[in-house]
Amino acid sequence: MASLRLLLLLLLPLISSSSVMAEKTRHFKWDVEYIRWSPDGEESIVMGINGQFPGPTIRARVEDIIVVELTNKLHTEGVVIHWHGIRQLGTPWADGTAAISQCAINPGETFLYRFKVDKAGTYFYHGHYGMQRSAGLYGSLIVDVAENEREPFHYDGEFNLLLSDWWHKGSHEQEVDLSSNPFRWIGEPQTLLINGRGQYNCSLAAQSSKPPLPQCKLRGGEQYAPQILRVRPNKTCRLRLASTTALASLNLAIGGHKMVVVEADGNYVQPFSVQDIDIYSGESYSILFTTDQDPSKNYWISINVRGREPKTPQGLTLLNYLPNSPSKFPTLPPHIAPLWNDYNHSKSFSNKILALMGSPKPPPYNHRRIVLLNTQNKIDGYTKWAINNVSLVLPTTPYLGSIRYGINNAFDTRPPPNNFPKDYDVMKQALNSNSTYGNGVYMLKFNTTIDIILQNANALGKNVSEIHPWHLHGHDFWVLGYGEGKFSEKDVKKFNLKNPPLRNTVVIFPYGWTALRFVTDNPGVWAFHCHIEPHLHMGMGVIFAEGVHLVKKIPKEALACGLTGKMFMSEKNN
C-alpha cells in the first residue's frame, strides 16, 4: 500500500502537467472602432478591430480557452461579437447576442468574453447588434484538433478564405431604408470580397467579365489587392471556407481543379467530389484539392452570386503555381457558375452532404415538433418578415438574465405559435398579409429531442419565394431532409436517420421545407434566425430557451440594461 501511495505521488505531477498542456488559455485584447478602409478600391468607413479589416484571425486547439477583452471605441453605439459555430457549453452569456445573451457593450466600456472551444473546425465571428456585420465587423476563428489527434484526411498545407459582400451605402443608412415607409430595399452589394478584398468597377479577368469591365490596374500593396494562394505542384491542399455575407449566397470554384468536401460547419462529412460549391451566409466548409494541373499556368478562384439575380460582378483571386509569377494571368477564363436560379444544382449539392461514418446519429424519435413558416408581411404599413405571423422585436433586458432570475415584465411570456394554419397556401400570396410584433420565447424542456420544420412560402410579391439560410446558436442539429411545397406528415418517412449531417446553418429553398433535429442539452437562451442580415433586422427569427435554471452566475454586465434589468440589479445590490 505504501509503495502504491509513493507511485501515485510520483505520477501526480505528470498527470497535472499533461492536463495543463492539453488546455491553453489564449488572450486577445481588441478595440472595436470605425476606420477608413478601401475593401474594393473605394474608400469607405469600415468597422475594424485593432485598426484592421477583417478582424484578427483567432487560431486555437480543441479544449483551449479563448479570452477576448473587447473595448467599444465606437463613441455612439453599442457592440457585441458572436462566435459563430462555437456552442458555448457552460458559458451562454458569452454567445455575443445583444438583448438575448448579454447587454450591448456601451461606448467606452469593456466586456470580457471567456469560453472554451470544444470541437475542431472552421468557424468565424461577427457583430450581432444592428447591422454591424454589414459594416465589416467579422473575422476568422479556426480550431485545430488536439495535439495528439489527427484529422480523418491528409493534406500538405492549408488556406483560409472568409467570404463577404460589400455595399458603398453605410450600414446605418441601410437600417433606415429597411425601416422606412414606404419600404426601401438596400439593393445588391457592389462587390464580393475574399478575405476582405475585392475590386469595384474593374475586373482581374477583364477579357471574360460579364458585364464587360476594364482591367484592374494594381501596383501591389493596395488594401483591395487580392490575397494570392501560392502552391507547389502535386500537393494536396486544404481550403477552409466561411461565408459571413450579409445577403449573397455564393458559388465557389477553382478553375480546372476538382474539390473534395470533407467538413461542414465544424463537422466531418463523407467526402464527395464537386466542380463547384454553393455556400450560404453562415456556412463553413473545408475542401481538399490537388495541384495536379499544368504547372506552367495559374488558375482563377472565383465566387459568384446564387439565388438572386446577379447584379454584382464575380469575386476573384489567383491560385499561383510556383515558381510562376503571380502577375502571369490564367489563360483560361474563370469557372462558369450555374445560373443564379438553377435550384436543382443547389439541391443536388445539399443532398450530397452526409455525415462521416461513425458520426453521432440522431435520436430515432422527437418529443416535440415546431413548424416555422417564413412569410413577408405588413405591420402598420411597414414591410417585415415574420415567423408564424410574428415578427421578432428583441426586448431591452436580455432574455438569459431575465429568465434565469425570474425578472417580471421583461418580455412577452405568452408562448409563440407552434405551427401555422392548415389551410395556409404556401404557394400563393397571402390573403391577409398583416402581421404583429412579438418577443415571446419557445420554452423547450431540457434534455429532449426537438424537430424543427422550416417552411418557406410566397413573399409579398407574386411568384416570389427566396432562399433563407437559418443559423442556430448554442447547438449543432441534424439535417433530416429537404422537400418541395408544403410539409405534411407523410414526409416524415423521407427523413434520413441513418447518416444525416450535423450543421449549425442550413438553407430552405424557395417554396420548400427543411427538417432539423436537435437535443436540448445546452442550458441557455439561443437565437435561431435567418442569417441574411436585413431579414433578421426585419424580424425573421425566434428564441429558444432550455435548462436556464441550470445556468450558473451571469456577469452583471450581461444583465444590467433595460429598465427591468437595471431595477433588478438595483434591488439585488441594496
Automatic annotation (TrEMBL):
InterPro entries: Cu-oxidase-like_N, Cu-oxidase_2nd, Cu-oxidase_C, Cu-oxidase_fam, Cu_oxidase_CS, Cu_oxidase_Cu_BS, Cupredoxin, CuRO_1_AAO. PROSITE patterns: MULTICOPPER_OXIDASE1, MULTICOPPER_OXIDASE2. It catalyses: 4 L-ascorbate + O2 = 4 monodehydro-L-ascorbate radical + 2 H2O. It comes from the Eukaryota. Residues 32-145, 159-322, 432-547 form the Plastocyanin-like domain. It is found in: Secreted. GO terms for cellular component: extracellular region; plasmodesma. Its EC number is 1.10.3.3. Dimer. May be involved in a redox system involving ascorbic acid. Belongs to the multicopper oxidase family. This is L-ascorbate oxidase. It comes from Anisodus tanguticus.
